[in-house]
Every structure is written in structure tokens, then in C-alpha cells.
Amino acid sequence: MLTRDGCRLWTEVGGDGPPLVFCHGGPGLWDMAGDLATMFAGHHRTVRWDQRGCGRSERRGPYTLDQSLQDLDDVIGEHAGGGATLLGHSWGAHLALEYALGHPDRVRRLVYVAGTGIGDEDTWKPAFRRNLGGVLSGWDRASVVRLWTAEFPDRERAAEHAEAMATPWFDINRECSATINAEIARRLRETDLAARCRELRVPVLVVDGSADLRPRSAVDSLVAALPDVRRVVLDGASHLPWVEDPDGFSGAVLGDPRR
Q1: Where are the annotated coiled coils located (predicted)?
Q2: % helix / strand / coil in the chain, to the nearest 5?
């Protein structure tokens, strides 16, 4: 599809039912929600998309939060009839939250998965780096897979899960990653996001994996600020909780009484 400024975005639509739009992590990565689309295809019209400059979408900027929100609005308008449930993962959870705050009339429900909250990044990033136990040695596929392997506590299947994340493989958009991450960090320091969250009337489901390397306490202030929130922590799951506990994850999303 084309955004309102003419940028070509890759999208994939399947399933049947109320629209469910995925917002992938990164920034600078691509949609990895194939398993999720299959999981929910019997209950939702699923909409996957690669964000601007990422994966199969056109590699052009600008790379900003406002542009990302506008692109998401275009995706919803094109494929979701103007309103949808949003399922955001990691950075995509923050993107989906910001969209719900700005367009509550277009969001039926927000599923906030493995996000890092609304506080300063110092509340989670130092501990994450310690827990990760390594640094990225290069931006090629093999180096990234080695790093991603650390995300999974099941050591026997960790490499398999990391390989699946990297298949298909697209070059990481480093400019997109650096630019948007810096902007988000600045906005979180300078903006009282909790005050905006207290006014949100969209139902929110927060799903965490207890073994995520990013401290789950970082999300506590977000949960405390939201007036209509339910939180599910999946024991033993990590940053991609649907991979390690698919039954628990689908049960949390589909079993939410506010669906």
C-alpha cells in the first residue's frame, strides 16, 4: 500500500473477524508476526506490515515517531476500516500506545506485549545490558542471531528460536533504529506520559514474559496509570512470549473479557 506521502509499505492481510493490526518491534526491524497471524486468524482479520524503511517496505524516511504514527494511521485506514485492536510488541508496543493516546476513537483495544514502559530508559536499559551478557559484534545475520539467542531461557531451543526470528532476513535499518530510539528517549524524559495515560479510555491488556531480559518492573508505572488495564505475566516466557508459551499467550489475548 501507499502512505499519504507516497511511501510504499509491505502489508499482509488474512483471517476473518474484527481487525487486529500488529506493530512489530525494533525500530529498524521488520514484521515477525507470522505465528501470531496464524494463531489469531480464526478470530480476527489480521494485518501485518513492515514499518517505513524496514523489511519489505520502501527504504526512505523520515524516521520519526510522528511519521510512524501517521503510517500506522494509514495502515488502519487502508486495511482495518478505520478502527482495530492493536497488538504491539517491544518498540511496537510503545508505538501502539502512542497511537491509542492520539486516536482513541480508532482503537478498540490495545494489547501491549513486552514493552518497556513510560519511564526513563535508565529504569530498564542498564539491567537489560547486564542480563544480555554481550554486545552486538556486527550487523550481519550471524552476529544478530548469536545475540538474539540470549533472549531465550530454554537453552536447548534458543538457537532455533533466534534463527526463526531471522527468517526471512532483511538488513536492519540502523538509521531508523538510532534516530527513533533517541527521539523516544528524549520524549520520555521531557513528557509526562503518565498523565496522558490516565485519560485513556481504551481497554489495555499488558502481556509480559517473566524471563524477559528487560526488567518487567519498568512497566509498573504504565499499568498504574492506565484506568482500564489487565496484566498477564507468563511464567518462564521471555521477550517473545507467544513463541515459548503459545497457549498461554493466545489464552490471555482471546480470553480477555473486554474483547
Answers
A1: none
A2: 45, 15, 40
Q: Tens digits of per-residue pLDDT, 28-82? A: 999 999 999 999 999 999 999 999 999 999 999 999 999 999 999 999 999 998 7
Task: Give 11-130+173-254's CATH code, choosing from 1.10.472.90, 3.40.50.1820, 3.30.70.890, 2.130.10.120.
Answer: 3.40.50.1820
For residue 199, give the DSSP letter. Answer: T
DSSP 8-class letter at 44: S
Quick check: 236 pLDDT over 80? yes
Nearest Cα neighbor of 129 from 116, 118, 142 is: 116
C-alpha pair distances (Å), 146 with each of 94, 160, 173, 215, 220: 26, 11, 18, 21, 30
Chain centroid to CA 129: how far? 19
**Amino acid type, 58:** E
